[in-house]
Amino acid sequence: MASIVLVTGATGRQGSTVARQLLDIGWTVRATARNMESPKAKELLNIGVELTPGDWDNEETLKKVIEGCTHVFLNVVPNLATFTSEVPHAKRILNTAKVTGVKHVVYSSSMAIKDLERGPYHDPNHPEGGFDTWTILRTGFFMCNMFHPKVNMMYPDLVSQGILKTTYTPGTRLPQVDVEDIAKFSVAAFLEPERFNQQFVLIASEKLTLAEITKQLGEVTGRSCMARDLEDKVDIEDIQRWGIPLTLFEEFLEREES
């Protein structure tokens, strides 16, 4: 049977990399695009992706593009205006994939996604969803966040001033991941479904502090780069003088667990 994969989020950095690596091994790749005239959509068409106009809100479009697929690479992102679309989109894609006969799903998530059964959004019918095999990739901090175009949105001061401003502490070590590596694991999971079946795979090549990241950025770009955190910006004692009860992290955990 021919291997046909729906790659969601194919116009993004992660999805397009997965699509390219799957095409490199001779698999058929399908995807959707809201704007078929966009540069990213045209790039996908040029490398051989079977692109269908539409989005994940349209069940007819989804059924059309998933019909005949053997695999799905699932990578959904929230609507940054409402943060309400991610779960409905994921369920719609998975439900459509299930009824159309998809065998294996690889879901790219994040390292924070664990202990699913304890979460408020846990559904006992997921993550299995009725598929023969499934794999969940838990990815670290994307290296490409430090480069155009993402850096302009996420860390604009790094571009204009060479200053990486975050809310992390100096000792925080971020697990670094390259989208190429995510794609490698995705392809491996598709090629060896039994080996990767029901596996939660954490992907990162190394852990770096903000100082280490900016040091390496400076060495490569030739610019002076530095990290600035917010550790010294928060005065706990000053906040407490307002007399408003504050929640400790331990108290938060106890509340959410109950």
UniProtKB/TrEMBL annotation:
NmrA-like domain residues: 3-251
Family designation: Belongs to the NmrA-type oxidoreductase family.
Keywords linked to the UniProt accession: NADP, Oxidoreductase
Classification via SUPFAM superfamilies: NAD(P)-binding Rossmann-fold domains
Keyword Aminoacyl-tRNA synthetase: no
Stored Pfam families: NmrA
Keyword Nucleotide-binding part of the UniProt annotation: no
Protein name: NmrA-like domain-containing protein
GO cellular component term, pick one: nucleus
An example Gene Ontology molecular-function term: oxidoreductase activity
Stretches that traverse the bilayer: none
